[in-house]
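Reviewer 2 asked us to include a model.

Predict the structure of this chain.
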Amino acid sequence: MFSFFRHIKNLIDFTQLDRSQKRIVFYSEGKNYWVHLEGMVRAVLENSDIPVCYVSSSVADPGLALSHPNYHVFEIDESFVRNWLFENMQADVLVMSMPDLQQYQVKRSKFDVHYVYVQHSLVSLHMVYREGAFDFFDTIFCAGPHHLKELRSLEEKYNLPKKQLVNHGYARLDAILKEAENHKNRVTPQGEPIHVLVAPSWGPNSIVESGVGKAIIAQLLSNGFKVTFRPHPQTTKFAKTQVDDIVKSHQRAALFHFEDNVAGQNSLHQSDVMICDWSGAALDYAFGLNKPVLFIDVPRKINNPRYQDIDIEPLEVGIRPIIGDVLSVNDISSCSSRIAALCEENLLYDKSNYVFNSGKSNEAGFTALMKIVANV
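Predicted model (structure tokens):
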């Protein structure tokens, strides 16, 4: 109840803020999304005199703790207050990494606002995301060439208005690359167990919800591998029973570690190999750290049944044998040996073929954002 009144107060404070202070508004669903927005927020504050508002639906969002004379923060809920604010938003530009604008409860404002979508994953836009997830944005920042191709194909297929597309890049990947500099000399000591990061996606077919993950983790531990279990936040939320079951089964095992903060990077840098299914985290891991991924071949994560309307293979499908190996769910017994073999391989590919502005996405995003603000 107290949080509801706090959110209402923050809503009133936002609406009463002078319109000149709301040139750029960033919206974050919570702490895990700060990494996608932080670089641009800081670039605007450090390189311009344009005021910035940061609205988040989580009190734990690090973006709410940033302090700057031109920076105003507001914590709101992810239901009634947020939905009302979106419909009545008065701002020049609204930047967000939440898709499905106008599709469900979150609507475009009745006032003239320019909506910018920033990618929160490297995966393709037509299979994992719901149909129409990006149709109501004015500008879309693209992480790589595949996003450009997919969006233009979707516009042509469904006769949609052309959006402004920006060759942006991917801030999460850049953060991993930057942090990797502090770990570049890390090598698993001779005799130490291989460290496996189990980081699946979420949904009914993921390796946690389907039950496959429990068997995999048990096998790895029994064969002397070190295992960090890092479920997706949505899995922790909607499949808590399965997550708790895995943790309870292995919490006394010295080589088992449970990690519930996907915004952190320690396990990425400390591990040797990742086990995944259809999570975009696998692409972050491979492109950011040049480490292999073993994909468990559960059914594809399809949230758009019409994704084949455009004849483009999703990146997360075609990239799997390039950045690692694929293991059938009927061959789980060989998981440990496949992991060991992967760690001996030297996978060669050029990530610049898949991602724009590697290491420089924030600069590219800032430049594009300034052009948008100047023209709205």
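The mean pLDDT is 94. The longest helix spans residues 2-16. We have added this to the supplementary material.
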